[in-house]
């Protein structure tokens, strides 16, 4: 049954006092001064778990147009940078042209709280929201903005499934702060006797930086970091891990110390939800969707949800459209944007699930390029930072004697074969590919098609396909997207095969050169008809 229409003076309950909930409450109250907007937050006003939140300069327009609070907060209290650095094996390489800002989460929450209070939102901190059935009866609209462990979502889902799906990453992560001030977003890679660890570090004030650490589960267990009970109530932090990481990254943080705040290991969970509303209850932010923190979009997505939802609520209250139409429009608009971000985040999340392999097998400059090219090609990188791309191209020429697309490769089996790295796939029959390079030299090799499977089945699909790889020689990896990339990387970096990545998209110079410079394959091939 459709939800009723809102009047000009609706009663609205917001459950959850994070950035998304506070921003929505403010926007709605400002648009509808006669509305009674009440926000319930179980934590105290001064409580704030976590450290910094980060935003890309290129993605803030919609939020700034709705309310300047975030823009002003970043300007007055945040830190800004343009360059992202990667440190590996004592070498540091940077990628400019990436304007970003960050602010302490506690500071941002305080400003959003003041903003909401100023426009007349009834803020109830230290107050658990009444049961959902009671809220639905007492309020015209209930907004669930209570995060990943949302009680509002769980209640709705228990009545009738919302289509809520969770994909759990294999990598482990833990969130600290540090009194060391990084210059900007910096990725620091260190190897202990137990394995690979990596830091995502960035400044969030003049006194503190965020310090997120990732590792793989095997390394985590070898280091004894599985001893801490992560199921206990929020509050206690893993001090054993804190001491271990302070020692491992001592050269990187100098005299700085790690700062704990409910710091404990976890696995990132990507959340997707089919239905974002039901009746007079609607959900926003982490309650219905998440994207890996390496793309810095969680808080931004929640606040963008708030902008669209507030506009639709205002339409329902002032233009006479039904609440169901308004909430349906909100879901349709935001689902498209969120889906795009989640698709872009998948290669980044995957990179962090395999970063130890890349760090151990690629030289520091190639490793840096491999990292940044996980989501964009070499031409776009050159537009942002021509210096980095020039350095990578020069290093390739120094090693191989010619530019990537003009260089050759040798294979050694019964005899030595030389062929160009830019190939044409003439045929692929009975498991064998026939390829020809620009100079007419031909080569045959077994061809394996990477499974095209969406996560989480992707990993298991690639693992199965690896069993088909030959023990030595040359292999062609066909297919598309992330599964093809992962299988090609496994063949080249872990099985030491001469690896040719094949697909219609690799007819483009940009895609082909990016694959070669990043070390994802030794050569590329495209079907003859696509060239």
Query: Number of helix segments?
Result: 18
Which blocks of ≥5 consecutive residues have pLDDT under 50? 449-457
| Largest β sheet strand count, sense and barrel closure | 8 strands, mixed
How much of the sequence lies in strands comes to 25-35%
- Average pLDDT taken over every residue: 92
Distance N to C terminus: 55 Å
- How many strand segments? 25
What integer value in Å does the Rg equal? 26 Å
Structural class estimated from helices and strands: alpha/beta
Approximate shape: globular
Helix content: 25-40%
Descriptors:
531 residues, 18 helices, 27% strand, alpha/beta, six-stranded mixed sheet
Question: How would you portray this structure in words?
Answer:
This protein has 531 residues and is α/β, with parallel strands linked by helices. Helix content is 38%, strand content 27%. α18 (509-518) links the parallel β24 and β25 (523-527). The chain contains 18 helices and 25 strands. The strands form five sheets. Strands 5, 6, 10, 11, 12, 13, 14 and 15 form an eight-stranded mixed beta sheet that branches. A six-stranded mixed beta sheet has the order 8-2-1-9-17-16, sandwiched between helices. It is globular and about 80 Å long. Residues 449-457 have low confidence and may be disordered. The longest helix is centred in the middle third of the chain and has 31 residues, at 323-353.
């Amino acid at each position: 049954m459709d939800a009723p229409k809102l009047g000009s003076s609706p009663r609205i309950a917001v459950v959850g006092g994070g950035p998304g909930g506070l921003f929505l409450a403010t926007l709605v109250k400002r648009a509808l001064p006669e509305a009674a907007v009440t926000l319930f937050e179980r934590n105290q006003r001064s409580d704030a778990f976590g450290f910094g939140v980060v935003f890309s300069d290129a993605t803030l327009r919609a939020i700034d147009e709705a309310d300047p609070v975030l823009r002003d907060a970043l300007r007055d209290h945040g830190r800004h940078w343009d360059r992202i650095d990667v440190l590996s094996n004592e070498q540091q390489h940077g990628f400019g042209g990436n304007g970003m800002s960050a602010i302490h989460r506690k500071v941002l929450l305080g400003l959003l709280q003041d903003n909401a209070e100023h426009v007349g939102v009834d803020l109830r901190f230290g107050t658990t929201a009444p049961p959902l059935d009671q809220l639905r009866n007492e309020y015209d609209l209930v907004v669930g903005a209570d995060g990943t462990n949302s009680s509002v979502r769980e209640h709705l889902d228990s009545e009738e499934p919302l289509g809520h799906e969770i994909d759990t990453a294999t990598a482990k992560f833990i969130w600290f702060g540090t009194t060391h001030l990084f210059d900007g977003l910096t990725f620091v890679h260190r190897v202990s006797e137990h394995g690979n660890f990596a830091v995502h570090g960035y400044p969030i004030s003049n006194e503190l930086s965020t310090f997120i650490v990732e590792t793989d589960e095997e390394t985590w267990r070898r280091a004894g970091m599985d001893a801490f009970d992560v199921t206990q109530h929020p509050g206690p932090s893993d001090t054993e891990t804190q001491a271990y990481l302070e020692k491992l990254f001592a050269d990187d943080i100098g005299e700085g110390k790690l700062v704990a705040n409910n710091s404990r290991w976890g696995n990132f969970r990507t959340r997707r939800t089919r239905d974002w509303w039901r009746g007079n209850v609607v959900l926003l932010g982490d309650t219905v969707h998440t994207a890996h923190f390496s793309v810095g979009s969680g808080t931004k997505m929640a606040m963008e949800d708030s902008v669209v939802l507030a506009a639709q609520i205002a339409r329902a209250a002032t233009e006479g459209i039904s609440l169901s139409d308004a909430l349906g429009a909100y879901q349709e608009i935001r689902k498209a944007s969120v889906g795009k971000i989640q698709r872009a985040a998948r290669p980044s999340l995957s990179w962090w699930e395999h970063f130890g392999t890349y760090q151990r097998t690629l030289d520091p400059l190639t490793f840096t390029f491999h990292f940044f090219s996980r989501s964009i090609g070499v031409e776009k990188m050159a537009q942002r930072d021509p210096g980095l791309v020039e350095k990578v191209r020069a290093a390739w020429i120094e090693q191989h004697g010619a530019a990537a697309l003009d260089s050759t490769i040798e294979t050694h089996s019964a005899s030595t074969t030389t062929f160009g790295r830019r190939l044409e796939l003439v045929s692929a029959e009975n498991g064998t590919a026939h390829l020809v390079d620009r100079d007419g030299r031909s080569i045959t090799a077994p061809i394996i098609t990477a499974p095209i499977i969406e996560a989480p089945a992707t990993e298991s699909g690639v693992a199965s396909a690896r069993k088909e790889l030959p023990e030595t020689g040359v292999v062609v990896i066909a297919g598309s997207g992330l599964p093809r990339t992962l299988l090609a990387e496994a063949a080249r970096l872990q099985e030491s095969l001469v690896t040719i990545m094949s697909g219609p998209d690799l007819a483009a110079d940009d895609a082909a050169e990016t694959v070669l410079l990043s070390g994802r394959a030794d050569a590329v091939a495209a079907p003859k008809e696509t060239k």
